[in-house]
Design brief:
The complex is a heterodimer of chains A (about 280) and B (about 350). Chain A has about 280 residues and is of the alpha/beta class. Chain A has ten helices and twelve strands. The chains are: A alpha/beta (about 280), B mainly alpha (about 350).
Chain lengths: ~280, ~350
Amino acid sequence: MTTATTTGTLLRLHDLEVRIGDTTIVRGVSLEVRRGEVLGLIGPNGAGKSTLLRAATGLLPLAHGTVEVAGAPLDQLDRRARAQAIAVVQQIPEAPPTMRVAELVLLGRNPHLGLLARESAHDYAVTQEAMERAGCADLVDRMLGTLSGGQRRRAFIARALAQEASLLLLDEPTANLDVQAQCEIFELVRSLAADGAGVLVVVHDLTLAATYCDRLVLLAAGSVVAEGAPHEVVTSANVTRVYGDCVTVINDPSHAAPIVVPARAGKHRMEASHDD
Amino acid sequence: MTAPEAIALPRSSARRRGSLGPFALAWLLLAVFAVLATMLGTTDIPASAVLGAIWNHLPFIGGGVAIEPGWERIVIDVRLPRVVTAGLAGAALASSGAAYQGVFRNPLADPFLLGVASGAALGAALGIVLPIPALGYAAVPVLAFAGAVIAVVLAYTASRTAAAVSNTSLILAGVAIAAMAGAATSFILLTANERALTIFGFLFGSFNAASWPRALTALPYLVVGIAVLLVYARVLNVLQLDEEQASQLGVDVSRTRFAVLAAASLTAATAVAMAGVIGFVGLIVPHVVRIAFGVDYRRVLPLSALLGAAFLIAADMLARTVLRPQEVPVGIVTAMVGGPFFLALMRSRLGALR
């Protein structure tokens, strides 16, 4: 990003606090997602990543702080305007197994359609384009129940693209995928950002996050622990602080990003000769 | 009614449509069964006479076909109102069943899930045992309708909290209301003596009391109810994802659920008031439609209405003719004929998936 102007900022969370019942899940979180970038949200289970994502789409009430989408406060946008600005792919999105891919992707046009409206030729064209972009155009007529994990993810990403929102929120888009499918999904995410989308993605796999994201936000117990470029965030100090000492961070010159591997206590130092 | 075919319903759907669209097929089935059901009865009347009698009674253009006057009276005054009533009830039950299944995302949901049937049964039982001169012969349908509506309103308000109405609490509240109304109906049955048979008749459904005035009284409720369901058909597609996704796609989930449940309950309550508790139609017809024509609610809802009408007209025709001159309650026919048919369809579908 050469100019970080207001128009370049697609999502701005400021001093966000989210409570569920009496429990504070997210506390004092501020972050920005800019046009063209992939921001990775990392942190252990229960750190508040998914809650933060849900709060950012207005699904959860804010105890404190503000959410701005493309410069407009979220609470000033109605449901459809929100869905035109933010597209979400949930971690385990439900859908009837007999629904066809094309039918699912077409639902992404809902934010652009009034109650009585019917899809126009334009809506079908956008749907077709979204499927081609997400690499699932060959699956149009397949039922969701017959797809592999990676294909299913592509179908849901295509639905998000059909919304024509410039901001994409992806909750663990690579969970339960084999390593090839993981790479393919993240290559797709990168190319969407290259086309001008802003992407906020929750990732569990730290190596994957460090490899594909422009910036990372490390969340622990609802607060931001570290933020910045992958090599600044995924450090031995940060990772050990948040995940404990069962992991080792390897900075291998042959790999552009830090590598995080599990290490059994007392044994990890023997092999981790590359660690800084 | 057909959706644009561009990409949403590609190859296999196009093949499935064949030369005859699903809507043409559904209308054709409905017309065939309607004519057949009007022909058959204690006296069989030829199709030409049935069609002639209907032509004679068409406003403005009709008239001039010579038919045996006795036949014309049977067709117009006896059989046709019954066929029309059965068709309306079938359309109402099947479309509201499809809507309930859509809102609850539960294939086991039927129009009676929130207490429509048990509320109506209690209302009807009261109408049968209590002398209410002001209502006269209308006591049963009017009280049945009121009972159905009260049951659903109670279930809905009981499950509503400040935040929202959850599907689970709605279903649980519906079960509780149904149990209470059912217990009250059983109590009335035990004390009703010779009138218990009339109540049993209502519990299994019958089109015995069908008449033009009754059908026309019910018509506006059905038109409004089914029209609202059709308006929400596209949004029901979005609701097939979970509520969070639907909301993130711009759907006001609470408002949609309220509107669809209100319209579906009104529709089902009207059907029950017209003809008693006829099970199975609202459960299986939408599933048959989904298996044959896919899950798009813009097809499922109108096709369920058409095929529900055809199915119930056929079921009533059997109910009147298999043991004639005796009549079998139509609810027994829908289950005895519809059950095996549905199981066979389900088996062939399972086989195709394997």
